[in-house]
Automatic annotation (TrEMBL):
Residues 16-205 form the Thioredoxin domain. Belongs to the thioredoxin family. DsbA subfamily. The keyword Oxidoreductase applies. InterPro entries: Thioredoxin-like_fold (IPR012336), Thioredoxin-like_sf (IPR036249), Thioredoxin_domain (IPR013766). The lineage of its organism: Bacteria, Bacillati, Actinomycetota, Actinomycetes, Micrococcales. This is DsbA family protein. Signal peptide: none annotated. Keywords: Disulfide bond, Oxidoreductase, Redox-active center, Signal. It comes from the Bacteria. The keyword Signal applies.
């Protein structure tokens, strides 16, 4: 179990102090929501057979960064049982570039590695006024990616289109901030790590 007091406090602060918001949108019907939540090209951190967990995130969002270790622990705890899907909701200056780097890495089967590198180093590159493109390319090189292929994918307009589609899907779902979670199509509003664990356990027992 994840019941660590320090993490609980981090989560409470992250959710209660959430400031990364987009204008509120009308919420679509249940059937429309299912289509918007996960697309065929949505990146997966893990595949599971019993439930689907979706996180709309911004790599530069402080709340997302605070919850990153919690999500990693959940992935370990529910390995093989829950599919973890990432959707993008870039709200900051370099978060779009970070998402492009993640998508470009995914083209070489290294989405998870880039996802982790971006969060592990977020305090170094986040909230900078200048573009961090060169930093992200440095991460790709460190990960041993084919740099010609990475560059081509990063600069490919279709890569940007996938990220923009994710943003539009989130807005259509009425998402007003990051991170926002869904489990088996139901939006979660946890106030603690225990709330997340309980939601997972309930879904897997259902």
């Amino acid at each position: 179990m994840i019941g660590v007091a320090a993490l609980v406090l981090v989560v409470l602060l992250a959710f209660n102090g959430r400031s990364d918001e987009t204008p509120e949108q009308a919420v679509p019907s249940e059937s429309e929501s299912a289509d918007l939540l996960v697309r065929d090209d949505s990146p997966r951190l893990a595949e599971g057979e019993e439930a689907v967990f979706v996180e709309f995130l911004d790599f530069e969002c402080e709340a997302c960064l605070s919850l990153y270790p919690v999500i990693e622990n959940l992935r370990e705890e529910y390995d093989g049982r829950v599919t973890f899907v990432v959707r993008y909701m870039p709200l900051h200056g370099n978060s779009l570039n970070a998402a492009l780097a993640a998508e470009a890495a995914a083209e070489q089967g290294e989405f998870e590695a880039m996802y982790q590198r971006l969060f592990d180093t977020a305090e170094e590159w986040g909230h900078q006024e200048s573009s961090q493109r060169n930093v992200f390319f440095g991460y790709a090189k460190e990960l041993g990616l084919d740099m010609d292929a990475f560059t081509a994918a990063y600069d490919d307009p279709t890569t940007l289109e996938r990220i923009e589609q994710s943003r539009k899907d989130g807005q259509a779902l009425g998402i007003t901030g990051t991170p926002t979670f869904f489990l088996d199509g139901e939006r979660l509003q946890p106030q603690s790590v225990s709330d997340l664990e309980e939601a997972f356990d309930d879904a897997l027992q259902g």
